[in-house]
Here is the input.
Amino acid sequence: MIKFTARSLARIVVGTAAVAAVAVPSLATGHAEAAAGYTGRVTGQQGVNARQAPSTHTAFKGTIAKGKQVAIWCKTTGTKVDGNSQWYLLSDHRWVSARYVANVGRIPAQCPATSTNTAQGQMTGNVNKRSGPSTADTKLGSYAKGTKVWFRCQVAGPSVDGNNRWYLTSDGKAWVSARYVKNLDSGPATLRTPAPC
Here is the structure.
């Protein structure tokens, strides 16, 4: 049987706390770091609907009441709501239209929240460019098969033939279904795909 003295137990507790103090930051994402300083206040009379992705055509994730303050990671373009195409990514991974959120302090930076390289993909067919990450969003044109495009980041949205990833072009103006994109060697080392928005 192993016996522990008060002193040895104290060392174990202190050592464990030290490991935890080191381990916790390593689990934090760049999103958490970028969240500091970005705050918004809901202004919609009926609050604001939260969504799975920056589109009114993606899954509903609840309503945030008028007057409530929300922590924001970053912003990107999506479905226009009353003429406003900006969307905010909240700290709880939900998206809300900037049309119904007023900035408190600094204006959020563009997504992704952390600095990352863009990733390159090649169209495997003729692919529509959309104003948001859904086939129900407005068509903005198309890419011909074989076209190489740089992408800024990706979100999970409505599935297209079993693939629910959507890529945002590097200029931040259009979304493309990853179902029709072949990831190339250029770009981030991780899986050669765009970083999460």
